[in-house]
Amino acid sequence: MSAAIGDGALVEGQLLPPIRVLAAELALSPSTVAAAWAVLVRAGAIRTDGRRGSRVATLRPGPSRYRRALERPTTPRLDLSTGTPDPALLPDLGPSLARLGRRATAGRYLDDPTLPELAQALAATWPTPAPSLNVVDGAMDGLDALARQTLRPGDLVIVENPAFPPLLDLLDALGVRIQGVRLDDEGVVADDLAVALERRPAALLLQPRAHNPTGVTLSPRRVEELAALIEGTSTLVVEDDSVGDVAESPPVSLARFLPGQTVHVRSFSKSHGPDLRLAVMSGPPSVMTGLTERRHLGQGWTSRLLQSLLADLLTQASARAQVEAARREYARRRAAVIARLALRGIPLPAGEGLNLWLPVADETAALVSLAAHGIAAAAGRPFAAGGANGPHLRVTVGLVDDDSDAVADLLAEAAAAPPVRGPR
Ligand SMILES: Cc1ncc(COP(=O)(O)O)c(C=O)c1O
C-alpha cells in the first residue's frame, strides 16, 4: 500500500474498495483485510470514515497527542501544563564548561561512542551491576531507536494507562497496537499485566519511578511480582526513567531479575537540562548491538563533548549539590500542594516527580476555571492509553515555586467545576 501511494498508483483522498469486495478479489477472509486496514490506519497510510469507507490519508497528520497535551488558548501567568523542569533548579553549566574548554577536543571520529568517564560516573548509581552503557540524544531518541529496531507494524505493546503522550504517538507512528494496564500506588497492576501477557505482547513499556503523569514509583515488591510474570515470555521490558536524578527513590529496574530482556533508559533532561539532549541506556547485547550498529548509519554517536559535560556535572561537588537541592525542592513543592489539596478534601497519593495527576469533575471545565486565574494545566485525555481513567488534569507542580496554598486552592476549585454546557 505504501509503495502504491509512493509511486502514485493510489492518490491522497482516493476511496478504497469496501473490505468485503477487496477480500473477495484477493481470496482472503474479510477479517484478514480488516486487520490489515487497521494496521494501515495506525501507520497513518489510510483513514476510515465509518460507512463512508476508507480513503488514502493525506500526509498532513492532525494534532498529535503531544501537541494536544500542550494546547492552550492564551499565554498563562503560571504555566503548569508543560511537564518540564524549572530552569532555576538546573545545575550551573559555567564551571563545567570552563573546565571542558581547557581540555576538550572535537577532533575524533573513531573513539568509543560512550565516553569512559561518563560510564564510570554512572556505574555506581545504575540499577544493575557492571552495565554496558549506551548514550543517546535524550530518552525519546533512545526509545524511538529501540522501537524501530524491535517492533513491527501490528505488534502489541503494553503501556501504562495513563501514559506519556509522545510515547503513544511514537507507537502509533510505527503502526503498533497498544494495550493499557492500570497503575496503583505500587506501579503496574500485576493482574492486569498477567492478562495482557496472554496476548503475547512484543514489549512492555513502563516508567519505573516518578511516572509521568501520576508520580507512581514501582515498589520493590511489585518489581519482583512483575518480573515473575514476565519471566519465560519473550516480551521485552523497556523502562523509561525520565525523571532520573531528581527522583527521590533510588533507581529501580526489572533488569535485576530479567537481565536478558530489559532495556533501561535514564534521561538527564529533568536533572541536568533538556537541551543537553542526553540519556543513557543499557540492555541485553541482543538488542543493544543492533541499535548501535543502526545508529552508525545515521548520527553515529552522541557528541562526546556533551558527554564530557555531563560526566563533569555528575562528578563535581557543586553541580552534584545543586542537583540534590533540586531533588529536595521538587519534593517540597509537590508535598506543599498535596498537603493543601488534602485539606480541601482531595487526598492524593504522595508519589514523586514533577507532575500531579489531579482527578476533576470535567477536564474542560477545570481548564477554563484555571485559565480564569491565568493558570494552565494539561488535559488528561491525551494521556489515555486504551482504557477509562476518568477525567484528570496533569499539573506540573514542580513549577509551583511560590504561593502553593493559593495554587492548590485554585486547583481544588477547578477539580470541582461542573461540566460547561453549551447553549440549548
Ligand atoms: C515519561 C517521559 N519520557 C520521556 C521524556 C523525554 O525525555 P528526553 O528529554 O530525555 O527525551 C519525558 C519528558 O518529559 C517524559 O516525561
Please give a structural write-up:
This protein has helices at 2-6, 19-26, 30-42, 65-70, 94-103, 116-123, 139-150, 165-173, 190-197, 220-230, 269-272, 285-296, 304-315, 317-343, 363-371, 404-416, and strands at residues 46-48, 54-56, 78-79, 134-136, 156-160, 177-181, 183-184, 187-188, 203-206, 236-241, 262-267, 279-282, 356-359, 375-376, 378-379, 392-395. The chain has 16 helices and 16 strands. 39% of the residues lie in helices and 13% in strands. By secondary structure, it is α/β, with parallel strands linked by helices. The chain has three domains: 2-56, Winged helix-like DNA-binding domain superfamily/Winged helix DNA-binding domain (Arc Repressor Mutant, subunit A, Orthogonal Bundle), CATH 1.10.10; 65-88 and 319-416, Aspartate Aminotransferase, domain 1, CATH 3.90.1150; 107-316, Aspartate Aminotransferase, domain 2 (3-Layer(aba) Sandwich), CATH 3.40.640.10. Strand 5, helix 8 and strand 6 form a beta-alpha-beta unit. It has a seven-stranded mixed β-sheet, with helices on both faces. The protein has a three-stranded antiparallel β-sheet with strand order 13-16-15. Helix 6 (116-123) runs parallel beside helix 13 and helix 15 (363-371) runs antiparallel to helix 16 (404-416). It binds pyridoxal-5'-phosphate.
Write the layout of secondary structure elements.
Layout: H1 2-6, H2 19-26, H3 30-42, E1 46-48, E2 54-56, H4 65-70, E3 78-79, H5 94-103, H6 116-123, E4 134-136, H7 139-150, E5 156-160, H8 165-173, E6 177-181, E7 183-184, E8 187-188, H9 190-197, E9 203-206, H10 220-230, E10 236-241, E11 262-267, H11 269-272, E12 279-282, H12 285-296, H13 304-315, H14 317-343, E13 356-359, H15 363-371, E14 375-376, E15 378-379, E16 392-395, H16 404-416
Parallel strand pairs: 3-14, 5-6, 5-9, 9-10, 10-11
Antiparallel strand pairs: 1-2, 4-12, 7-8, 11-12, 13-16, 15-16
Helix pairs in contact: 2-3, 5-13, 6-13, 7-8, 7-12, 9-10, 13-14, 14-16, 15-16
